[in-house]
């Protein structure tokens, strides 16, 4: 019998218990998910950063730590973690992110705010351009960034993206590396951040790089708060260089009540709900990785500890 520990908040257990048992059965695995296993007997840790386990040193037999989160910045530098770490790539998470990104891109593209909040009943028949005339750039072309880029391209937006290593994605203008960043930003009328938070990406969108965006650009950040220099962003909004920002993630969450983002007229705050791992699909990912590990096959979505994601 395989022993796994579900290290996540109790409300997650309510969501995951049945899907995990169903997924293990589908994969032909016998997995005991008792919360009472001694740490040294556990074969796999199913991990959330909000769960009880943060010291992995006593999990001496564990063959992998399986994160329920796509972003692993809270665990990747943990010095007690010697076990292989897999991040979450989940079809449900991807679908949710596509919807959030497409919704907010369309909001800015169509200028919807002017019609939703129009207290003086102005009749201004300004027709928005077609999507094909709107340049959208995604920083990050991984599981989520590439999926969002493809959906935006299917809506006919003029989509480009930027990644660490060169990529070739049909219908997307791809940039990479330090050299590609300026070009990717200079064309971004709407910019979407879907990068992981690493030492390389922290504060990537500082005053200088925000300045590379075209005047009147919009910024969407469903990636991680610390990708953006908060003060530089507020300053770019105040000077009118940027026209608006929708932020889902923050350096401190919940976003403190006295933070300047809350009252800012050009900022929309969403409370880290762009997407989330969905239990039914994620349980299958966890089960597949346990199956692979038990069969001696390579794990899926293994984190590169050196790169930090
Ligand atoms: P992936 O690891 O699949 O993709 C990351 C992308 O970022 C890759 O294209 C990668 O390049 C690129 N990248 C990483 N470092 C650099 C760098 N230094 N320079 C240029 N490009 C870089 O991650 P996901 O797409 O699954 O997730 C992205 C992030 O979204 C997560 O890390 C998390 O922070 C956030 N997230 C937010 C959620 C929310 O609800 N707000 C929900 C889920 C995730 P390359 O392809 O070359 O490796």
Automatic annotation (TrEMBL):
Q: Which residues form the D-isomer specific 2-hydroxyacid dehydrogenase NAD-binding domain?
A: 132-274
Q: Which Pfam families match?
A: 2-Hacid_dh_C (PF02826)
Keyword Transport among UniProt keywords: no
Which molecular-function annotations from GO does this UniProt entry contain?
NAD binding; oxidoreductase activity, acting on the CH-OH group of donors, NAD or NADP as acceptor
CDD domains recorded for this chain?
Answer: GDH_like_2
Could you tell me which SUPFAM superfamilies the record lists for this protein?
A: NAD(P)-binding Rossmann-fold domains
Q: Which UniProt keywords apply?
A: NAD, Oxidoreductase
Q: Which PANTHER family does UniProt cross-reference here?
A: 2-HACID_DH_C DOMAIN-CONTAINING PROTEIN, D-ISOMER SPECIFIC 2-HYDROXYACID DEHYDROGENASE NAD-BINDING DOMAIN-CONTAINING PROTEIN
Q: What is this protein called?
A: Glyoxylate/hydroxypyruvate reductase A
């Amino acid at each position: 019998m395989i022993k796994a520990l579900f290290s996540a908040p109790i409300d997650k257990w309510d969501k995951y218990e049945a899907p995990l048992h169903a997924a293990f059965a589908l994969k032909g695995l016998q997995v005991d998910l008792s919360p009472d296993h001694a740490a040294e007997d556990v074969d796999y840790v199913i991990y959330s950063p909000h769960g009880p386990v943060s010291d992995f040193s006593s999990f001496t037999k564990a063959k992998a730590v399986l994160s329920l989160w796509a972003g692993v910045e809270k665990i990747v530098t943990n010095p007690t973690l010697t076990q292989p770490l897999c991040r979450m790539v989940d079809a449900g998470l991807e679908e949710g992110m596509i919807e959030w990104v497409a919704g907010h891109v369309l909001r800015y593209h169509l200028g919807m705010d002017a019609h939703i909040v129009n207290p003086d009943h102005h009749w201004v028949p300004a027709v928005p351009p077609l999507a094909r005339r709107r340049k959208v750039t995604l920083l990050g072309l991984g599981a989520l960034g590439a999926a969002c880029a493809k959906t935006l391209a299917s809506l006919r937006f003029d989509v480009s993206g930027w990644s660490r290593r060169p990529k070739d994605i049909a219908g997307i203008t791809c940039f990479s590396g330090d050299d590609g960043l300026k070009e990717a930003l200079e064309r971004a009328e709407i910019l979407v951040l879907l990068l992981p938070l690493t030492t390389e990406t922290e504060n990537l969108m500082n005053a200088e790089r925000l300045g590379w965006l075209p005047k009147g650009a919009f910024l969407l950040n469903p990636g991680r708060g610390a990708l953006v220099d908060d003060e530089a962003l507020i300053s770019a909004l105040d000077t009118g260089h940027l026209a608006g920002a929708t932020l889902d993630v923050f350096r401190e969450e919940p976003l403190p009540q006295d933070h300047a983002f809350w009252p800012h007229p050009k900022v929309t705050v969403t409370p880290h709900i762009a997407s989330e791992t969905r239990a039914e699909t994620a349980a299958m990912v966890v089960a597949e990785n346990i199956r692979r590990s038990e069969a001696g096959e390579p794990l899926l979505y293994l984190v590169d500890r050196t790169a930090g994601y």
